[in-house]
Amino acid sequence: MCIRDSIKALYQPALGFVPVVGLAAVLLVGGLQTIDGRQTLGEFVAFYLYLTLLTAPLRSLGTLIGNAQRAVAAGQRIFEVLDASPDIVEPDDAVPLPAGGGHIRFRGVSFSYEDSPELLHDVDLEIRAGRTVALIGRTASGKTTLTQLLPRFYDPTDGTVLVDGADVATVALDELRRQVGVVPQDPFLFSASVRENIAFGKTDATDEEVRAAARLARADAFIEALPKGYETRVGERGFTLSGGQRQRIAIARAVLSDPRILILDEATASVDASTEREIHAALSAVMEGRTTLIIAHRASTVALADELVVLEDGRIAAQGTHGSLYRSSALYREIYDSGLAQPELVGVDE
Ligand SMILES: Nc1ncnc2c1ncn2[C@@H]1O[C@H](COP(=O)(O)OP(=O)(O)O)[C@@H](O)[C@H]1O
Ligand SMILES: [Mg+2]
After folding, report:
1. Does residue 348 register a pLDDT over 90?
2. Residue 62 Cα, ligand 2 centroid: separation in angstroms?
3. What distance separates the 2 farthest-apart alpha carbons in the chain?
4. pTM of whole model > 0.90?
5. Cα of 144 from ligand 2 centre, angstroms
6. How many independent structural domains does the chain possess?
7. pLDDT, tens digit, for every residue of 32-74?
8. Same-domain pairing of 111 and 61
């Protein structure tokens, strides 16, 4: 029981009880006065009646004042959010992203969240265009954070992040974010149609573009089987989709703008083998012709990557293929054997 509940449990009965005690006192004193003949019965009944009429409005006044106070507090919070100015702004002389296939370079990148100790320390990492790289590391080693520097959700506190040779801090933001597609770990579906959910980053997308993205993400078949196809309402108050289906809608959403870089934060929740196969089929298709960064939690996902990067406490601990890392990196061996390895799934191939 929280404090609010225990206060309620105390005050609500008390608020009901106190007026009744008052009425009892009025009955006692007024009744005696009437018996003594100091006032008429009519006067006493009228007084008692007025008094009972008064208690209800007075009690609701208390509730109204409480509501008003809560509304003021909530309103302040809403305006705080509305008035917030983004920390990430593009420079006035923002440049377009140079042509390229999505070459990524982190150069001496350090990062800390506001008021938190440094999380990424002097990260140097190069990913060649078109490669698929799996990012491996224990929980809270900074994997998600590192990838969020690419679309500039945050700026590094030190160092530079380059995409196709351009410092992302100098690039026009809308173009950068069109070119870096992100599939978050726990994709959010709005309470809207499937079509709107796929197109929410590019509201002017044509039906054909939405369908093409869904096809690429291997989502078209199940979408067409929904009661109203692409117009089916999903999300909180709509049709409930399975985890694998939501993932594929998120993948379709991420590839709708045909980004040159794709970031996939794999869900940690375990999925059954067939869902995993569906998601991997989608991934293999969308990875084609892009630089892909997968934060991998499963051995079978690692198998999709050309190369692995192991992150330890915000530093790059090792980089290489599964075979070479398994031999050379004790940390990788430990993560692979304890967390990643799911022997029944290893070798599941598309
Ligand atoms: N927005 C944030 N503000 C402050 N700290 C954060 C924020 N996001 C993540 N962190 C912290 O940063 C650390 C690394 O998080 P994250 O990059 O998500 O790690 P990983 O993806 O490797 O599990 C964690 O300790 C986490 O609590
Ligand atoms: Mg993470």
Report:
1. no
2. 47
3. 106
4. no
5. 4
6. 2
7. 999 999 999 999 999 999 988 988 888 888 889 999 999 999 9
8. no
Residue count (the chain): 350
Same domain, 144 and 73: no
Nearest CA to ligand 1 atom 4: 113
* pLDDT of res. 275: 80
**Residue 199 belongs to domain spanning:** 104-340
Amino acid at 123: V
Q: Between 239 and 324, whose confidence is greater?
A: 324
Which residue in this structure is represented by tokens 């293999």? 284
Find out whether 219 and 249 touch, Cβ atoms under 8 Å: yes
Do the domain assignments include residue 38? yes
Summarize the confidence of residues 80-106 as an average pLDDT: 90
Q: Where does residue 245 rank: exposed (0-12), middle (13-18), buried (19+ CB within 10 A)?
A: buried
Please name the helix (run of DSSP H) or strand (run of DSSP E) that holds residue 334, with its range, or none.
helix 330-335
Cα angle value 140/178/315 (rounded, 5°): 25
Around ligand 1, the residues with Cβ closer than 6 Å are 113, 116, 119, 137, 139-145
The string of DSSP codes covering 40-69 is -HHHHHHHHHHHHHHHHHHHHHHHHHHHHH
Q: Which residue, chain included where needed, has tokens 């507090």?
A: 73
Quick check: is 42 in a domain? yes
Ligand 1 pocket test target in 111, 114, 115, 144 with most atoms within 8 Å of CB: 144
Of all protein residues, whose CA lies closest to atom 2 belonging to ligand 1? 113
Pick the last residue of a domain from 49, 83, 117: 83
Asked if residue 112 and residue 57 are part of one domain, the reply reads no
Pairwise CA distance, residues 139 & 270, whole Å? 15
pLDDT at 244 over 90: no
Indicate the residue among 51, 83, 115 that finishes a domain.
Answer: 83
Q: Which residues share a beta bridge with 319?
A: 309
For residue 347, being part of any structural domain is answered with: no
96 found inside a domain: no
User: Rounded to the nearest whole angstrom, what is the distance from the C-alpha of residue 322 to the centroid of ligand 2?
Assistant: 21
Domain of 159, CATH number, reads: 3.40.50.300
